[in-house]
Amino acid sequence: MAKPTLIAGKIAAENRKARHEYSIQDTLEAGIILEGTEVKSLRLGRAQLAEAYAGPKEGELFLFNAYIPEYQAKTAFTHEVRRPRKLLVHKKEMRKLLGAITREGMTLVPLSIFFNDRGLAKVSLGLAKGRKLHDKRAAEKERDWSREKSRLMRDKG
Fold it and tell me: Which of 13, 50, 94, 109 has the fewest CB atoms within 10 Å of its CB?
């Protein structure tokens, strides 16, 4: 098996449903504390964020329910696949996020896990508000219309 190459900005996992289910108000980049086998597994791109969310635990920010499968090579040290993982954000940012979550009924949704240009794993978090069914339909209608409009403009001239 070939060794995975390090590519700057490589997305390891993406939550594609998040932008459909939620209206994203603000985004922020946070570091994530991982074990060695989790990093190797992320580099292979097999992680899933579909059911993951971020929230407070013991005064710190954690990523819950993110699925990072065990590394396939036979190693003595394996990790728990759905363990809570600590997120690294500045205290000022954390206070702002936690305030928005408690006061305004918003949610912290992980949008993607990626590797930055230095090879460090980062999580892109979105401060989001849940969409109702009619909001989802309106957003889809708007997206379809803008796509159709760009097609018409391209064909006309």
Answer: 50
CA atoms within 13 A on the CB side of 80: 6
pLDDT tens digits for range 100-144: 888 887 888 999 999 988 989 999 998 888 777 777 788 888 889
SS3 139: helix
Q: Tokens in use for 83?
A: 């363990």
Place of tokens 């580099």: 43
Nearest to 28 by CA among 106, 119, 128: 128
| pTM reported for the whole predicted model | 0.76
Strands of the chain (E only): list them: 11-14, 22-32, 53-57, 60-64, 85-88, 107-115, 121-130
Looking at the DSSP bridge assignments, the partners of residue 112 are: 14, 124
**Domain membership of residue 98 as a residue range:** 11-131
CATH number at residue 65: 2.40.280.10
Binning the chain into helix, strand and coil, the percentages to the nearest 5 are 30, 30, 35
As for how many domains the chain has, the answer is 1
Query: Residue 6 falls within a domain, yes or no?
Result: no
